[in-house]
Amino acid sequence: MDIKQDILWRVYLSFMGMVVIGIIILGKIFIIQHIQGNYWRSMADSLQERYVTMDAERGTIYSDDGEMLSTSVPFFDIHLDMMADGLRANQGKLFRENVDSLALGLSRLFRDHSASWYRSFLWKAYHSQERYLLFKKDLDLKTYQQLLQLPLFRLGRYRSGMIAEMHEKRINPYGLLANRTIGLWRPNAPNVGLEATYDSVLRGKDGRQLVRKVAAGTYAPVEGYTLEPENGKDIVTTIDVYIQDIAEQALYQMLDSVQAQYGTCLVMDVKTGQIKAIANLGRQPDGSYWEDYNYALMNTEPGSIFKLATLIAVLEDHLVTPRTQINLYRGELKLGNRTVYDAEKHNETWVTVEKALDLSSNVGFAQLANLYKDDPMRFIRHLRALRLDKPTGIDLIGEQPPLIKTPQSRTWSATTLPWMGFGYEVLVSPVQMLTLYNAVANEGWMMKPYLVQSIQEFGEPIKTFSPVKIEKICSDTILHQVQRMLRSVVTDGTARKPFLGAPYAVAGKTGTALVADGRTGYSSKVYQSSFVGYFPSDDPQYSCIVVIRSQPHPRVYYGADVAAPVFRKIADQLYALHLTPKASPRLPQPRMDTIRWSVRTLSTRAKQLTNNWQHIPVNTIEVSDAHSAALIPDLSGLGLRDAIRLLEQKGLKVQFTGAGHVVGQSLPAGSPVRPGQQIQLILN
């Protein structure tokens, strides 16, 4: 092969190779454009666009008179982008001109470092070219607004490099008040109380927003691709802030004076079953008391307050009458291989059943329960009829199922039945015992206890919970006998001393139970003191139970000395209020430093303030919905958030002063609406 042919062969081969490569490239282009085009376009979009979650605003929990018990407020984390275009333009001229005045403003605002310290910090961040430097955490709205007025920062994110990220925190404005019952919502953590029970109602549904990258680390919303969040609903509880406050104060004073382990107190509206107060205080390692557990829902051996169930059973079966004589054996009786003792020593022998209840005799009621020794299930059926074998169904997570033994139970013995007669070898919760006594007060009708009376949206109820009658616990004849005997306990029995001189009549029962204390069992001599009853007994309005567990080997532990005085303090104040219903009760003060405005409005204003494209005056919110209803509504009594939502639908501009609920409005209710019109709201 000569040289010319060799060169031509190589040229042809190279040309063919280039043709093949060109065909492959063209084929690949065709595949990318026409076959894989949608995929690659979506990949490109995914690098420039993404969906972000728009958090729904969690609903507020209110008391029965409209006080906020749990709500959300906005807080801000501040970051610094020291590579922002505005800071770097013209060799950092804007930064150099403002850094000294900014440092001075930061020092005056936060009062934690000197101006020279802040100046050094800012220059160091500038030289290190930090893109997302955490500067401050958890600023409240007021501080954040002040921060926006400082030199440099007032110029907006893209010139100052200040990045504000808003998040909400859940707070209880009244602090400790009913804290365990209300609960405290925390993201990604176990929650309790009403916050957990009604979480699906309160949390709402998050929305989605499509955003497109417009600069390094900066995204802008894409119009038309927003799924608005559905904000959570509000719930209105049955809790009365005034009653809750006096219950907690009375309980705390007693716990602190006797150094008890814990205590609980519930106040119920007799006619409806509404829980007006539920206090739970446990002793902490430092000696203070806090709402650490909901003791009202925890099962314990109730002791003598359980004797009411035994009394109803034997009276209903006509085994005895209130005047039947029984022998108390001077407060000590051996049954099988165990001995029953009365809590308070006495020398009584033959007394009536009514007198045995006055004395709270364990010996007497052990014998009454033992009347069923040939047919224990007959007695158990009475307890079941009183619903002591099942939870009350209160709308609060954590109620423990009770334990009522039967002859088939593994731990049943010859002495189980008589011990059940005076409240041992059974486990029930304070809310269960209160429900039973409340039924006696309510002419025999047992009411289901409940804590939430309505679910609201825009201040209007969308679901209402009404009182629920469960069943009648006994015949009217037996009921009247029991009512008289419970009054006798207070006038002539173990509860006589704490209620001396009371201007109202009380019916109820004391209880003093030796309870097991962990691994040490009963040897630690830990006592559970209790009192449960209702008042005024001639026209019952409230029922109440107080249960207090002592430290080992307490000096004072009888129910009449520990639990009943708490009941008396609560009853005294409620009776005084009942006598002068027009008087304004002293209400506990909420923590107004953290909740100056309606919280939903705070969140709205916070989101608007983080927007670089507009500035909003401090107390003005503009609303411009195209909806136009005919008349201005009456806003009296509404929270600010709900009032603004109603006005948003009418295209009005809103200004407000004060905090709390609406007590005045510049445009009278019933006047015509003109979109764009301004209305001034006055809050209390």
What does this structure look like?
With 684 residues, the chain is of the alpha+beta class. It has 4 domains: 3-35; 52-237, Alpha-Beta Complex (Penicillin-binding protein 2a (Domain 2)); 241-579, DD-peptidase/beta-lactamase superfamily (Beta-lactamase), CATH 3.40.710; 619-683, 2-Layer Sandwich (Trypsin Inhibitor V, Chain A). Helix content is 35%, strand content 24%. It has 21 helices and 28 strands. Strands 2, 3, 4, 5, 8, 19 and 20 form a 7-stranded mixed β-sheet that branches. The chain has a 6-stranded antiparallel β-sheet with strand order 11-10-9-24-23-22, with helices on both faces. Helix 3 (85-110) runs antiparallel to helix 4 and helix 10 runs antiparallel to helix 19. It is elongated and about 135 Å long. The termini are far apart.
Helical content (DSSP H or I, runs of 4+):
25-40%
Mean pLDDT: 83
Look at the structure and give the CATH class of the largest domain.
Answer: Alpha Beta
Structural classification: alpha+beta
What is the name of the CATH superfamily of the largest domain?
DD-peptidase/beta-lactamase superfamily
Task: Give the percentage of residues in beta strands.
Answer: 15-25%
The tally of beta strands, per DSSP, is 28
Straight-line N-to-C gap? 108 Å
Shape: elongated
